[in-house]
């Protein structure tokens, strides 16, 4: 018997309607568009379309771009049919949703 220090995560697919997966995919594409535009122009838009420049406010710019990337990853993960609980399993945070 082989002992593993951490159990391997088991991902479970959900029975999600196709139209919901399409909506999540479109949200991911829209988020990718906003992120590419922010990286290209150097201006990321926050709440109420407040602009944050890469040159004048680099911390807020980086925070918004990172938030977009996390959102895109979550949308794509859920569009593939997995649950939000499963995306946190490799980080040991799966119990947050139980």
Write structural notes for this entry:
With 98 residues, the chain is mainly alpha-helical. The chain has a two-stranded antiparallel ribbon. Helix 1 runs antiparallel to helix 2 (58-79). It contains three helices and two strands, in the order H-E-E-H-H. The protein has one domain (18-97). The protein starts with 17 loop residues before the first helix and ends in an 11-residue tail after the last helix. The longest helix is centred in the N-terminal third of the chain and has 24 residues, at 18-41.
Measured as a percent range, the helix fraction is: 40-55%
Sheet with the most strands? 2 strands, antiparallel
Distinct helical segment count: 3
Q: What portion of residues belong to β-strands?
A: 5-15%
Task: Work out the radius of gyration.
Answer: 17 Å
What is the succession of H and E elements?
A: HEEHH
End-to-end separation in angstroms reads 30 Å
Using the alpha-carbon principal axes, give the shape: globular
- Low-pLDDT segments, ≥5 res: none
Integer tally of domains: 1
| Strand order in the largest sheet | 1-2
Q: How would you classify the helix and strand content by structural class?
A: mainly alpha
Mean pLDDT across all amino acids: 86
Features of the shown structure:
98 residues; mainly alpha; two-stranded antiparallel ribbon; 3 helices; globular
């Amino acid at each position: 018997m082989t002992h593993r220090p951490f159990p391997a995560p088991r991902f479970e697919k959900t029975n999600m309607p196709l139209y919901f997966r399409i909506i999540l995919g479109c949200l991911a594409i829209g988020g990718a568009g906003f992120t590419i535009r922010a990286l290209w122009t150097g201006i990321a838009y926050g709440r109420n379309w407040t602009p944050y420049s890469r040159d004048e406010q680099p911390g807020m710019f980086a925070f918004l771009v990172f938030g977009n990337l996390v959102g895109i990853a979550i949308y794509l993960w859920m569009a593939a049919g997995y649950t939000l609980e499963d995306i946190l399993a490799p980080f040991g945070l799966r119990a947050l949703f139980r």
